[in-house]
Amino acid sequence: MQYSAKLNEFIETICEQIRWKKAHNTVSEEIRNHVIDQKNAFMDKGLDEETAMEKAIKEMGDPVLIGTELDRTHRPKMEWNIFLLTGIMIILGFGIRYIASFEPDTPFMLERSLMATLIGIACMIGAYFIDFTFIGRYPKSIFAGLTVLSILSILLSPVIRGKHLYVQFILLAFPTVMAGIIYNMRSKGYLGIILSGVFFIIPVLIGLRIPSMSVVALISLCFLILITMAIIKGWFNVNKFYGMLHVYIPTLAIVITGFIKLMFYSHKRERFLNIINPFKDPLGDGYISARMREMLAATKFMGRGDLGSNPYMIPTINTDYILTYLIHRLGWLSFIVVMGIISFFIIRSFKLCYKQKSILGKLVSMAVLVTFTMEVIFYTITNLGLPIMGSLTLPFISYSGMSTIVNMTLIGIMLSVFKSGDIVKDSLLLPNDE
Amino acid sequence: MSINKNLITGSTAMLILKLLDGEDMYGYQMIDTLSKRSDDTFSLKAGTLYPLLHDLEEKNMVNSYEKSADNGRLRKYYTITKKGKGMLSEKEDEWKAYVRAINQVLRGGESYAIFC
């Protein structure tokens, strides 16, 4: 067709003015559609195709002018708020851990923290520039890579307090990779739901091998939220209700089995009850919860709580109980400030996630954010006196090099979604399989 | 009839928002509807429309989504947001005040504003 050469030339001239290359696809498709509509309208009025096309293009106006105008709107967006809040959390973490380092057996670990933060910054910037659509294009390779990395870490990393501690934090990246896996199950029906679940068994098994029930619970909750979201959005192209049944019947079965197991193994049941009601066994299973509750009970709104002599009998303050310590050391006000900053970060990010148009952008940014939010919730619950599970990590605040690196990488991925999510199109990423 | 260009471009955003307040539309449809409803007074150029639309979207006044048309082509539809509705009613008020003022002047200022 001869006329489309003219149309292509016209569109190219527009795109040449738009410096951000990623925006070219969306713009050119919309303009192309418009010109074709206009051309058809002219043809209905009796013009021949070539004249109609010429007239339609003329009707559009000056391509250079249009392009220049569009260039003003289409710029990659850096969410400075999110970036800045991440920085504030990191600095806050250093500050709080510095205060904690005055307690016995609580080293500051400045060098290791700095090292982890630097590596984290590099990963974050890298993730920001490697476009997040990468996750939608090669989810299986990334999944395989992360699996290999986790298994290697299990084989090589030291066992700390009975656990392969570092591996827990690597697992925190799995929900985000699962977003890519789910994304690639488009229109695969119930099979897509089941296959996503089958993939998810692998990180769960690794988590059980660590062993860390809390990380398994955390990533499972994230996965449930993601797959529920995908079903509601009609991603699998199935009846939503039956789709949900495919997810929640197995989930319920697992939860009930776990509960029954807990109730039948008497030592586990007792341990559980002792943690909830710590003063029945304040020197055994209930030790940490009992000390925590004593600390929290003797806390002021501002300033150091009063515990008499030798107040801090909780081990691993800077990794597992930094919030409890903070509340006791500086008062509830400090807790409110820290949680306020974290909540601001979460709420702001949720608003941006909500605005994402492509399913991939939505799934990936939600995966990162839900993981982050769950980390905060898990940590806060344990630190407020219910250490039923491990507290894992309070992103950037509690000490953990590996967690800092993983969380910064994830936030880099989220920033990458916010940068270009507006113009990413699902239709261009996946092959049309209709 | 043709009207001075400045008057039109200044209020184009308002007209677009008004159109979208009725139903979701794609670009060509907006131009077509606008020219029909105004008896061909407003022949909005696509070259003006799209930068404006994209700008409104950037400012969260409108949102867009894709829907395939009967002929299989993917069309980008625009829909007005809450914020856009707020801006529309603001602009409408401004416009009414403006028109009232113009009319007063045209009528020779014989109106209510004698002692102002």
From TrEMBL, chain A:
Keyword Cell membrane applies: no
Q: What is its main location?
A: membrane
Location(s), subcellular: Membrane
Gene Ontology terms for molecular function:
lipid-linked peptidoglycan transporter activity
- Which UniProt keywords are listed? Cell shape, Membrane, Transmembrane, Transmembrane helix
Question: Would the keyword Transmembrane turn up in this protein's UniProt record?
Answer: yes
Looking at the UniProt entry, the stretches that span the membrane are 82-100, 112-130, 142-160, 166-183, 190-208, 214-232, 244-264, 330-347, 359-381, 396-418
Q: Which GO terms describe its cellular component?
A: cell division site; plasma membrane
Q: Know the name of this protein? A: FtsW/RodA/SpoVE family cell cycle protein
Q: List the source organism.
A: Tissierella pigra
UniProtKB/TrEMBL annotation, chain B:
Task: Name it.
Answer: PadR family transcriptional regulator
**InterPro entries, per database record:** Metal_resp_DNA-bind_regulator, Tscrpt_reg_PadR_N, WH-like_DNA-bd_sf, WH_DNA-bd_sf
PANTHER family attached here? PADR-FAMILY TRANSCRIPTIONAL REGULATOR, TRANSCRIPTIONAL REGULATOR RV3488
- Leader sequence segment: none
* Coiled coil residues, start to end: none
A Pfam family recorded for this sequence: PadR
**Domain Transcription regulator PadR N-terminal: start-end pairs:** 16-89
Q: Which organism is it from?
A: Tissierella pigra
